[in-house]
Design a protein that fits this description.
Bound molecules: zinc ion
Shape: globular
Strand content: 5-15%
Strand order of the largest sheet: 1-2-3
Helix content: 25-40%
Number of strands: 3
Structural class: alpha/beta
CATH class: Alpha Beta
Order of helices and strands: HEHEEH
CATH topology: Rossmann fold
Number of domains: 1
Radius of gyration: 15 Å
CATH superfamily: HAD superfamily/HAD-like
Number of helices: 3
CATH architecture: 3-Layer(aba) Sandwich
Length: about 100
């Protein structure tokens, strides 16, 4: 990623157990709210959430963050949201947006 000019600024994660019922476990939006608190200039509408679970996509949708589900489903059944089976497909989706 560094070769592409992408720098990882910070890593957010949920350190809690399901039984703790925290607000940062996806699909709850707490992690995105924390990002917004720490980085108020981040424009969610211009951001992209890439996730490997429907919980990731649901969290992104709850704060209007565009998203792509990276999955390995065998079937080609249509999914009700943007999705890809590889990073190459994600790159195609992103570059065809413009
Ligand atoms: Zn948590």
């Amino acid at each position: 990623m560094r070769q592409q000019g992408i720098k990882i600024e910070k890593i957010f994660y949920c350190p809690h157990l399901v039984s703790e019922n925290c607000n940062c476990r996806k699909p709850k939006p707490g992690m995105l709210d924390e990002i917004r608190r720490q980085y108020p200039s981040v424009d969610f509408i211009s951001s992209l959430m890439i996730g490997d679970s429907v919980a990731d996509i649901a969290m992104a949708a709850s704060r209007y963050v565009p998203s792509i589900l990276l999955h390995s489903a065998e079937s080609d059944l249509p999914l009700p949201f943007r999705n890809a089976k590889s990073w190459e497909q994600i790159e195609q989706l992103i570059t065809s947006d413009h």
